[in-house]
Amino acid sequence: MAESIAILVTGGAGQVGAELQAHAWPAGVKVLAPARSELDLTDAASVAAWFSANPVAAVINPAAYTAVDRAETEVGAAFAANALAPALLAEATKAAGVPLVHVSTDYVFDGQGDEFNAEDAPVAPLGVYGASKLAGELAVRSGNPRSVVVRTAWVLSVHRANFLKTMLRLAGDRDRVSVVADQFGCPTSARDIAQALATITLRMMADPTAPTGVYHFVNAGETNWSGLAQEIFSQSARHGGAFAEVTPITTADYPTPARRPANSRLSTAKITADYGVTPRPWRDAVAEIVEELSNRSVAP
Ligand SMILES: NC(=O)C1=CN([C@@H]2O[C@H](COP(=O)(O)OP(=O)(O)OC[C@H]3O[C@@H](n4cnc5c(N)ncnc54)[C@H](OP(=O)(O)O)[C@@H]3O)[C@@H](O)[C@H]2O)C=CC1
Ligand SMILES: Cc1cn([C@H]2C[C@H](O)[C@@H](COP(=O)(O)OP(=O)(O)O[C@H]3O[C@@H](C)C(=O)[C@@H](O)[C@H]3O)O2)c(=O)[nH]c1=O
Ligand SMILES: [Mg+2]
């Protein structure tokens, strides 16, 4: 039997990391998802030791510090995970001669205008999280030219904490939820991102001349957080789950430590053209996640 090929997936307990582990990889591909205790991404010695003990054919890096508001005060932790760790992974993958596929965010943009942002639109993060993720992008691109940075946005899944699960929890004990209606973007299933990352990674492993650089991947269409909340509740109600009326409010009505972009829309034309990845509508992704959560909450 042929030996299997290993891929390192960081942040395996996160939303995207969990979906990458659950992904149906081709026979012969094995995913390694070490715990923090085995691989400390922010420690150069730990990263070097792990790579010398574990030969891999590619690295996918969804690990990140994702607490947007807390990052405003935990600047060191945000930059360690979001900028230093990608720099160390870029160095290690460059030395090993293998591709690095890194995950970034719409929060690198300041959210001017109302167009779908292309990959080369000017970046200007509004907060520490976005600034740390931008530093990570630059470290990846300069540290390993055989790399792809995939920016995504508004990630939803059955895993961990995310906006969808927060809304269902809030609806469990109140009839009405106030949600901002002046920040626009594209909700995205962590499962769909994992699929896109797998497609890119396998192609890069097979073809050293595969396209590199920055790509956007989000589900198709657009909404605002208030519209997303309404869709979550109407899907949930269909399954007999929690429901709340949504009161649309402005950003000014919902003060937070970190500023967020008013326009987070991302254009996906480039990933479709170069990698043949075509996102499904965001409502289909929401429906799948709400259904999966509602099946779980039904006692067997
Ligand atoms: N969530 C979102 O809405 C969006 C996310 N993104 C990006 O997508 C990627 C995936 O996000 P998502 O899956 O939601 O993230 P999660 O917050 O769900 O998971 C992040 C994972 O990274 C791990 N991690 C954090 N810091 C470190 C560290 N220093 N060393 C090792 N592991 C670490 C966490 O470990 P632990 O389990 O111990 O906490 C966790 O498993 C990230 O790069 C994020 O910036 C982009 C746009 C939107
Ligand atoms: C819980 C809640 C949030 N909101 C607002 C706050 C914010 O503007 C918006 C979304 O709330 P969140 O806390 O999910 O937002 P946030 O954590 O900023 O989500 C971001 O996470 C990072 C990691 C990313 O990379 C981004 O793409 C984006 O998904 O909704 C309300 O208006 N009402 C509410 O009851
Ligand atoms: Mg949040």
TrEMBL record:
Signal peptide: none annotated. Its cofactor is Mg(2+). InterPro entries: dTDP_dehydrorham_reduct (IPR005913), NAD(P)-bd_dom_sf (IPR036291), RmlD-like-bd (IPR029903). It holds the Pfam family RmlD_sub_bind. Binds 1 Mg(2+) ion per monomer. One of its GO terms (molecular function) is dTDP-4-dehydrorhamnose reductase activity. It comes from Caulobacter rhizosphaerae. This is dTDP-4-dehydrorhamnose reductase. PANTHER family: DTDP-4-DEHYDRORHAMNOSE REDUCTASE (PTHR10491), METHIONINE ADENOSYLTRANSFERASE 2 SUBUNIT BETA (PTHR10491:SF4).
